[in-house]
Amino acid sequence: MSFQNPVFIPGPTNMPEAIRQACYMPTIDHRSPVFGEILRPCLAGVRKVLKSESGHIFIFPSTGTGGWETALSNTLSAGDGILAARNGMFSHRWIDMCQRHGLDVQVVETPWGEGLPAAKYEEILKADTAHKIKAVLATHNETATGVKSDIAAVRKALDAAGHPALLFVDGVSSIGSMDFQFDAWGVDVAVTGSQKGFMLPAGLGIVGFSEKAMKAVETATLPRTFFDVRDMAKGYAANAFPYTPPVGLMNGLKLSLEMIEAEGLENVFARHRRIAEGVRLAVKAWGLELCAASPDVYSDSVSAIKTPEGFNATDIVTVAAEKYGMAFGVGLGEVAGKVFRIGHLGMLTDAMMLSGLATAEMVMVDLGLDVKLGSGVAAAQEFYRHGS
């Protein structure tokens, strides 16, 4: 693998040099007022990215997986009912975590490649007249399949059923890259991490809690120590953490948020849509299809590309790394060996994406797939020249 080439995995993403340097900072006293000058802009900046006026932001030394655990352990009790759809590897892993915590999960099995079944959610929630379901899980962007789900529709399902369950949303591969409306969608807990849209190394689990979620914190009885948001909130009041904070990563996050704000949040989303559309046009020119079942669920941060029956898609990733020094993502779970993934999120430009498409083309030709060199690149070029 070459350090000179950009990566096209769905995370960790390419890191701007300025952010890397911001993480590489001298040691400071994290209990001094200096740390508050890093912490406060991070909390305010994340709230802006979530499009929330009143969300409670918590940043843990962790990853998105720690964010999942933060959501569960702070708001629920053993035996509580959970409603979730399994439509990809990451929804599957969150379901697995719920089960390990002793929660009663009702799983709606959904084809990998489709979005969340909001209508089925509504049907189940209406039938739950005793309100045994305490939380609904929703993966906004399923990284394994390149599928975006309609979170507003899930909220409408809850409201139509008149159900008081909390709405938990995994936005790990969407927040900071795709539009996310915490307040407007009625999200109660949003989960993300530092290594995707925020263009940082892995190491921060970032969560937003609504007022309703914060009230649930007071009655929840699942064990929590490291991820206790009450301890974190108490630390924030003194411009500190309840334990040693990851100061360098926090300083990098502060700069990342400044860069996102300087570009303009809607411009960031538009850039991701444009780059993603170029990839989709390239896939079509190659004569291949996306794992995502229809355009309304196409992700703007990652594309999972199906290869012909009998072909091992993992070979594309292996040869790209060994022969050309470039990284793409393998298929996971039910789509392992059936798809390869191109991540197109974070610090990325049209020109960088063209290098990835060109390399993917060379690898597919090397492996004998019926792909014409230059076809996908030309399709993307034509769009990037005229796309807005």
Rough shape? Answer: globular
Q: What's the number of structural domains?
A: 2
CATH class placement of the largest domain: Alpha Beta
- Overall mean confidence score, pLDDT: 97
* Annotation, overall tally of beta strands: 13
Tell me the radius of gyration. Answer: 21 Å
CATH homologous group name of the largest domain: Type I PLP-dependent aspartate aminotransferase-like (Major domain)
Query: Percent of residues in helical segments?
Result: 40-55%
Named CATH topology of the largest domain: Aspartate Aminotransferase, domain 2
> Class by helix and strand content?
alpha/beta
Give, in order, the helices and strands: HHEHEHEHEEEHEEEHHHHEEHEEHH
End-to-end separation = 33 Å
List keywords for this structure.
7-stranded mixed beta sheet; globular; single chain; Aspartate Aminotransferase, domain 2; 13 strands; 13 helices; 2 domains; 4-stranded antiparallel beta sheet; Aspartate Aminotransferase, domain 1; 388 residues; alpha/beta
Overview of the structural elements:
The protein is an alpha/beta fold and 388 residues long. It has 2 domains: 17-261, Type I PLP-dependent aspartate aminotransferase-like (Major domain) (Aspartate Aminotransferase, domain 2, 3-Layer(aba) Sandwich); 265-386, Aspartate Aminotransferase, domain 1, CATH 3.90.1150. The chain is built from 13 helices and 13 strands. It has helices at residues 17-23, 33-49, 64-75, 89-100, 118-127, 151-161, 211-217, 229-237, 247-263, 265-285, 314-324, 350-366, 375-386, and strands at 56-61, 81-86, 104-109, 133-139, 141-142, 147-148, 166-170, 189-193, 204-209, 289-290, 302-306, 329-330, 339-343. A 7-stranded mixed sheet has the order 1-9-8-7-4-2-3, with helices on both faces. A 4-stranded antiparallel sheet has the order 10-11-13-12. Strand 2 (81-86), helix 4 and strand 3 form a beta-alpha-beta unit. Helix 2 (33-49) crosses helix 9, helix 9 (247-263) packs across helix 10 and helix 11 (314-324) packs across helix 12 (350-366).
